[in-house]
Each structure stands twice: as structure tokens, then as C-alpha cells.
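Structural prep section.
Before we set up the soaks we want a predicted structure of the protein with thymidine-5'-diphosphate in place, mainly to decide which crystallisation condition to try first. Input record follows.
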Amino acid sequence: MTILITGGAGFIGSHFARRMVSQGSRVVVLDKLTYAGNLENLKDITEDSKTSQLFKFYKGDICNQELVEHILSVEGIDTIVNFAAETHVDRSIQSASTFIDTDMKGVFVLLEASRRYKIKKFIQISTDEVYGTAHRGAFKETDALNPSNPYSASKAGGDRLAYAYWATYKLPIIITRASNNYGPYQYPEKFVPLFITNALEDKKLPLYGDGKQSRDWIHVEDHCASIDFLMTHGKDGEVYNIGGGNERYNIDTACIILDELKKPKSLIEHVKDREGHDRRYALDCAKLMSLGWEPKIKFENGLKDTIEWYRSNQSWWKRIKSGEFAEYYDKQYKHRFSCAE
Ligand code: NAD
Ligand code: TYD
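Run finished without errors. Recording the C-alpha cells verbatim:
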């Protein structure tokens, strides 16, 4: 099998690439290397002579039709897993334009090329955020989509476009909607790595609003295992929710991180809330579980290991935090903290 993994230099895509080459699949990565893409995330593949033979990297944009068609014409791709996306809600609130380009137009370019080159399987990595806030209960795949920020709205566009290519052209697509991921190599703009790395630096943890928003956490390895499972067990044209079964209030997750690092709770600062903040995400995963898959990693264990990874890999995140990130952090948080750090 030769898989094209778009966005394979990002957080989840790099874990998925590692998993697939270690199982003997040939992997081609197409990644634009935006601020979130990082070749260091793929180093253990490229520096190992066994896995590097199975691996090829293209730097480029999924919106570039010519490049996408070139890759499909020369690399013998049978499966595409599309992770490439602009992914951070707060950045989408600051400026939505790249989200519309990549998360909608980029998906269109990939789908069109897949149709032309008769791709055998196209997995569109969508998100639980397309459902919007779960006021009660948990969302099923058949529930209405109600995205409420530019990130989730553009992901909903890509999600439905993929479905349209199944309904209209019978392109063999599968759509996955996973809950919040955590684990090694996550860019430190996201809640878990931001709070871990700030705590390691004895900096304030900017908790939005009352901190009583809740998220369902899934370890990135569990998420990748579920996609691998769905590549063979999923049914074309179907949507699958992928949850971790670990719903936690943000404030409780922040406290676990501080306890683990033996840092004081006074590092938490309640700051101005995110605009349009979804209060709660929750997924009903009965459809996936009925096929025989369920997550294995308990949140408290996975979080402990993740904290240890960030403690032991400080050069990875310190280099990121001193670059483009510093400017973003200033813009996003300076006015939120009562007194700037
Ligand atoms: P990430 O931001 O860490 O990585 C995204 C990658 O896509 C980067 O390597 C970036 O360079 C690349 N990219 C961006 N625009 C591109 C373009 N136009 N062409 C080619 N490459 C481009 O994101 P992530 O957290 O790994 O998320 C991966 C996917 O999973 C996304 O589609 C996201 O919506 C989805 N998802 C993420 C989560 C989560 O909690 N992180 C949960 C559910 C679904
Ligand atoms: P995030 O990692 O941005 O994921 P998403 O919003 O896509 O679920 O945020 C997770 C939760 O943490 C969300 O409720 C917002 C909250 N949060 C904070 O309280 N402070 C922060 O600095 C960030 C980045 C997030």
C-alpha cells in the first residue's frame, strides 16, 4: 500500500506516518510546512535506514492542483489520508482566510485529483468541532452540524465536500470526526502543550473564562490506531466519531498538569474568554465501537507520559516558542492577562 499523508509534518499526521511506515507501508507526505509543520517531527523516520526507504517528502500546498496531480501520477498512491489543515481556533478568530483556503479549497483540490486518478480510499480527517457545542448528551454522526468559529466552519465545509464526492461520484471516502487530541509533538499553541510548557517555565496558564468548558481527550496514538482500523474496517461514504471517553473540565486538566509538575495552582490565571467559545464537546462513538475498536489509553496515564515527553524534549518546544510563536503569543494573550508578563 502507498499512502499519501497530507499534513504529515504536523502533530497527528507525523504520528500516523510513523505508525504506517513501521508497519511496512510506503508513505508519501505532502506538507506546506506552515508555522505548524516541522520536519523534526519526522526525524525518527528519516534517520532510520529501514523506514527512510519507505518514505518520501514533498514540500507543497494541497491547494496546488498541478503538484497534487503530479504526486498522484508518479507515486502510485492508492490511499489518501488528509490531515492538512489550519487547525487552531484562536488563530482562525484572528484571521480566517488561510482556513478557508486549506480546509475547504484544499480538500476540493484533493478530491478532484482523487477522482481523476481513481484513488481507492480517501480519508478526510474532520473534527468533533463541526457539531458545535453539545448542550446535553453526545453527538451521533447523524446529528446536524452547527460549527461556531471559522476553524470549525471551514472544517465542516471540507467534511461535507468529501461526502458530496461520495454521493455524487462514488469516490470511496470515509470521514472521521475525532475529539481533542493530546500527546508528544503537539504545537504549543494548543491547550495541553501550552499549559505544560508554560508551567515548566513558571509562566502563567491563561485559562479562558471560568475554565468550566469541557473537552473529550483522546491520545494521539489511539486516534492514529482508529484511522488505521477504519482504513480496512470502515464503510465507504460513512462518517465515524472517534472519542477518547475522557471528558474533563479545562480547569481540572490544568490542575492535573500543575500537580504532576509540582507547581502551584496560583499559576492559573482566568483570562478573557474566547469569542464564540464552544462550552462542551461530546461524541457518541457507538458506531465505531460496534465495529470492534475502542481507545486504550486512559487520560491520566497518557497525560502523565505526555508531560514527561515535554519535560524531556525541551529543545523541541523551546525552539518553537522562541520563533513565530512569540509574536502570536503576544498578540493572543497580552491584552488578556491583567498585567502583561
Ligand atoms: P497541526 O496544525 O499540528 O498540523 C497541520 C499540518 O498541516 C502542518 O504540518 C501544516 O504544515 C500542514 N498544512 C497546513 N496547511 C497546508 C496546506 N495548505 N498544504 C499542505 N499542508 C498544509 O494539526 P493537527 O493537530 O495534527 O491536526 C491534523 C488534522 O486533524 C487536521 O485536519 C485537524 O482539523 C484534525 N483534527 C485535529 C484534532 C486535534 O485535537 N489536534 C482533533 C480532531 C481533528
Ligand atoms: P484548544 O487546544 O485550542 O482546542 P479546541 O478549542 O479546538 O478544543 O483548546 C482546548 C480548550 O482549552 C478550549 O476549551 C479552550 C481552552 N483554552 C484555554 O482555556 N486557554 C488557552 O490558552 C487555550 C489555547 C485554550
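Observations: Residues 2-183+216-242 form a domain with the Rossmann fold fold (CATH 3.40.50.720).
Flagged for discussion at group meeting.
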